[in-house]
Every structure is written in structure tokens, then in C-alpha cells.
Amino acid sequence: MLPFSVCIFPPLFWPIFTAFSSSFRLFYPSYHVPFIISLHRMLASRLTSNAYLQLQNIIDAHTTLTGHFNVNTVTPNCTGVLAEPYLPWCPQRPHIKEYLVPLNLMEITYPQLVAQYGTVMKSGGHYSPPTCQSTENLAIIIPYRNRTRNLHILLNNLLPFLWRQQVQFTVFLAEQTKDYDFNKGLVFNAAYRESQKLGKFTCYIMQDTDVIPMDYRNLYKCDDTKPRHLCQAVGQKEWPKRLKYAGSFGGAIAFRPKHFEIANGFSVSYYGWGLEDDDLWLRFRKFAFRIARYPFLIGKYHRLDHPKQTHNPRWTKLKRTIYQRRGKEGLNTLNYTLVASERKELYTRFLIQPPPPPPSIYGQLTTVASPTAKITQAGSPAAGN
């Protein structure tokens, strides 16, 4: 135990005491640090600025060595006053008795969503658990265009789903302009790069707008050694159908930034629906990443109805060249224009304009819409996956 005499040590000698802070840590191990915090809070106003900074360095060094600075119990300070308690770590597996998610598939408007969730969510779509410290900082990226109804239903179910899992997260809406066919891989890569400018995220989730998780045991967290495919079965019944083949990699994916960087991100060559998710699976497999998967009963997702998308007109050619393109295009060739960036109540919105489709793959294709087509206004999206 730290000697009580330290509490009444004459203030004149505090600068000398703190000058030996590195040696002090050796004599008083980490379990004495809560006492040091209480001590430092009480005497902060009495120390010279130099000595105060040195005492603060003790705390910073302990944080670096142990990975966190968490006091789960109330500790007395020198005056007998109870020090402020610190939040405990959130459980790795939340304590949830009912596994089945009560889906709400009713149509809902964005103002209704804000009225329901805006008091809990912070500006930009950020959320932190109020009773514990999350071990993850998630970036939920939703590639998006022309699916307003699906987006709102997804948010109405996904936000309370993530709250129950006690994770810290920020929702990013990666919306593409109407110039060309939807390029899901490119807008995700662009949102990934833009999100890195706003904060440090430990785990990234790629979430499609048309699938909703059905089981609370489907934890939106990352594996340290391999990417995780969260979506194992999709349908509109109580027992969705299993994925048709092992390389199917869509719906919802979780990965560490280092995994995504090694794989060179999504391909940016897929204009139109199809194959971009499977291409990413092959990129991960190229670098010997095993894909983690939840059991079928846990990885169930409900699929929302939506109009059929335009299929990629060069699907066959792209499939033949998957292995040749893996290291040549992706994050390392990412090119886009950030038309708008806006912090909304429930998400941060990136409006992204891709370059024209490469003539080497698509030839001289005409655009889907004029490059000067009216861009959807924020707050009432009408453009994503």
C-alpha cells in the first residue's frame, strides 16, 4: 500500500518526488494506481505545472503498458472523500436471454427515425454504451443508392440491435452519385478512406441495405486474425436459405483495417450488380486469410424487397480476370470525387462520384444518367445499394 505519509508530504518536495516518477512506478505496481489517481486529483491545484505534468505521465505510462486505465471500484483519496468511479469494460458477449431479434419491417420516415433514436445517437451517427467501455470502435459502412425505404427499415432495426450488443460504433452512409451504374466496391473503399480521416476505428463492418440480422448472438465484432462473414443465411421466412456456395461473401462482413489493407480492398472495376463481394473473398484467400463464420442458426438475415439492379455488363470478363487484377487495382488505384460530406443525426453521409468505367473492360459505354444529373439532397436519400 502506498504510504499515507505521501498524502501529507510537504508541497515543497512534490517536484522532487515527481522527478523520480519512473522509479516510483517500479516500487508501486499497477494495483496502487487508483490511489495515485485520487492523490493526483486532490493535489493537482497545489503542484507546480511541471510537477503536475510529470505525475500525469505516470498515469499515461500505465495506460500504455496495460492497454487501459480502468478502475472498477470506488477508491478513497487522502481526505477520505470517495473518488469518481470509472466505467467497467463491456462484456465480450452481452447478457441477452432472448436471442431472436424482434424485427420491425414497417415503413418509416427519416424524421420519425430521428424522433425515435436522435436523443441517444450523437451527431454523425455515433454511439457509445452509457454503462461500460466498449472494447471495439466500429465503423458501420453502408454502400447505398436508390433504396430509401430499405435504408430506413435497416436503421430502425440495426440501431437497437447494436445497442443491445453494447458496442461503440459510427454509421457511415456511402452514397454514389447517379452518373454511372452503382459501384459498390468503389464507394465502400472511398468511405473507408474518408472515415479514417475522422477517427481511429478498430473494426469495419460492410452492411448491405437489404439484409437485417435476426439473432443477437451474431456479434458485430472483428476477429483479430481473420475477416468474418456475418451473413450465413438469407431469406424472408423464419428459416432463411443457406448461402449457395462457399465463396459467397455478401450481406455483412467484419474485418480489421490491417486485413483490408493487405487484401488491397474491394475491386473498383465492378460497375453494376454482381461478383464484387466474391472478388473480395478471393483477395482475402490470396493472402491465406481463413474466413470466420458463425453457425447457420446465428448468421440468419432477413432480406428486404427491392427493385432488381442492373447486372454488370462485363461480368464474364471480370470473372475471368479476377486473379490477374487482385494486386493491380483496388485501394492502390482508388480514384473518386467527394461531392459532399455531412454529419446527420443518425449517420455521416459521404456523397461519392466515381470515375468513368475503364474502357479496357467496358469499352465505350454510355452513362446511366447525365453527369449533370440532379444529386439527391442529404436527409432524404434516394441514391445506394
TrEMBL record:
GO terms for molecular function: galactosyltransferase activity; N-acetyl-beta-glucosaminyl-derivative 4-beta-N-acetylgalactosaminyltransferase activity. It holds the Pfam family Glyco_transf_7N. Pathway: Protein modification; protein glycosylation. The keyword Membrane applies. Residues 237-306 form the Galactosyltransferase C-terminal domain. It is a single-pass type II membrane protein. InterPro entries: Galactosyl_T, Galactosyl_T_C, Galactosyl_T_N, Nucleotide-diphossugar_trans. This is Beta-1,4-galactosyltransferase.
